[in-house]
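Structure ticket #2291
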Amino acid sequence: MTTKIIAPAALAAAIAAALAGVPAQAQQAGDFTLGLGLGYVAPKDGNGTLAGLSADVDDDIRPTITFEYFIRDNLGIEVLAATPFEHDVKLDGLGRVGSVQHLPPVVSIQYHFDATPVLKPFVGVGLNYTIFFEEETRGALAGTKLKLEDSVGLALHAGFDAKVSDRGAVRADIRWMDIDSEVKLDGTKIGTAKIDPVVMGVSYVHRF
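Resolution: structure written out below.
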């Protein structure tokens, strides 16, 4: 799962290599940025045990939006949002037994480094609140009611911006989120889904 995603970072690195000589400009207190892109959610391998069977949650890709406000020079507070991600759920020996949608909004504080005239790496840490909804069952669980409880957990963030203009940049980033959800079937707890995804992203970020 998480081994699938290297393309966003490779794309942004190639763009950065082509952008020699673009003037550097630090993010200043009071600036804010808006980013539009794609995020690929890749849950970790092995997502816990449900009803005594090993569970597997598959990957998904969706549009994302970020907003960051700089409270000090190079130090910002970022909010990540997205359209709903949808994941199939499989159980060992039973195949695909259901699907679920989720929204994982994240609030982070992050620091941007003035590394080169073109590249600005950054690191961040924050919290994510993952909301699960639209659970559906099929196959061996068809006709039952599946419920995943919402999750609160740590979120780590790192990446870099490759400047393409005075106010625009292409961003490649990676996040890790601690997402564990109590799973119920017809109201009875059957285990905990340990999703803990890596999220790879590529986006265009504009500074205002």
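Closing remark: The CA atoms of residues 34 and 132 lie 26 Å apart.
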